[in-house]
Amino acid sequence: xxxxxxxxxxxxxxxxxxxxxxxxxxxxxxxxxxxxxxxxxxxxxxxxxxxxxxxxxxxxxxxxxxxxxxxxxxxxxxxxxxxxxxxxxxxxxxxxxxxxxxxxxxxxxxxxxxxxxxxxxxxxxxxxxxxxxxxxxxxxxxxxxxxxxxxxxxxxxxxxxxxxxxxxxxxxxxxxxxxxxxxxxxxxxxxxxxxxxxxxxxxxxxxxxxxxxxxxxxxxxxxxxxxxxxxxxxxxxxxxxxxxxxxxxxxxxxxxxxxxxxxxxxxxxxxxxxxxxxxxxxxxxxxxxxxxxxxxxxxxxxxxxxxxxxxxxxxxxxxxxxxxxxxxxxxxxxxxxxxxxxxxxxxxxxxxxxxxxxxxxxxxxxxxxxxxxxxxxxxxxxxxxxxxxxxxxxxxxxxxxxxxxxxxxxxxxxxxxxxxxxxxxxxxxxxxxxxxxxxxxxxxxxxxxxxxxxxxxxxxxxxxxxxxxxxxxxxxxxxxxxxxxxxxxxxxxxxxxxxxxx
Length: 502
Known about the structure:
This protein is 32% helix and 21% strand. Strands 8-9-10-1-11-19-12 form a seven-stranded mixed β-sheet, with helices on both faces. The protein folds into three domains: 114 residues, D-Maltodextrin-Binding Protein, domain 2 (3-Layer(aba) Sandwich), CATH 3.40.190; 120 residues, Dipeptide-binding Protein, domain 1 (Alpha-Beta Complex); 209 residues, Dipeptide-binding Protein, domain 3, CATH 3.10.105. By secondary structure, it is α+β, with helices and mostly antiparallel strands. Helix 9 runs antiparallel to helix 11 and helix 15 packs antiparallel against helix 16. The protein is globular, with a radius of gyration of 24 Å.
């Protein structure tokens, strides 16, 4: 019996040793993601998790070019009304079912028909998707849509297991099943999301992490402390005020990239009873609120000069910015005049924000600034997911949520301000803006598209359902044991090629 006992003991020791050597990456998130269903979700932090869990038809490369992922190549028809894609062979979903053309068709149809789907406006140009055998699909469009590839590089192009989607329906987020390098293990709300390496991943030879644990830590000070203590391997969305501490820590590396999105305030102009207030009804008051903001001061003080002041969904240093509408300087007297013109001296407002320290600092600055123009603002701080739910339900007057940005300009504007946009929580609706943005989608001529976006920006700058005030940089802090991470302007955390030393 002794040899058997010895063998058993040895095997147990080896297994325990192998387990201890398994590479786990702990990533600190700025917020807890909303539902983990690519069809339903809307949070930036959710997209970070998806990047490890859910492969897309195409991805975004380091230079922001569209690159293959589940689709290996694609061609547009003459006239731009058909997009044909060849699919990667030998791919499996996390439940062992095969990835194929039928799975693509099922996912796109789900995105278009699921009542809870937020991808409908992103895929509005798609009339139908057809499978051409096992490994090819054709998107047939109602009208040319140059933005479709960019949409397929995000949640609209994340292909999910048809079997799991059928079984779970709208509850798919309780146990998502995709075809990415890591599969879902568990989620504890406000505490952790755990993924583990998928052994049958098509690119498994370039996956060197065995387990990923995402930890939502909204307080940037706590996130930095955890990173410096070694309790996190990576901190995402680090505060600009943390940059010096990260750079000065011998155990950490600092990385950043100016992002594609924007910082903004959303005004409830038509979403339920809460829109029935002076700010929601009178654009002059929204103009006054905007003029009372010192955008440059906010970006310098709160964001430590790492970002840019702005007033459009596109940054001032980008090709889509309308230079005829420059970032406004603060003008309290003009703001007061607009208030008076609207028949008010003072206006009480509820301002909904997340309980993120950086967001709160900016909100407090704004609160003080607009008070000088006659706005008495009460801050209402809550969890990020709760704030998004309240925005969707119209339970707000003015709210602060940011947008992480997309590589095509359409992704920064269309779904937020078109009448039936999937993320239009202000319920702003102007048929002329719809017309301009839909025409911009249909054109392959960037000069012609620019004219459409410029015209839409002029209208939106006057009516201000969204008050843009800046563009931030993504900042990452990494333990020096982590290697191979490549920062990207889209803010995603791509784990292919990432390694962690013992």
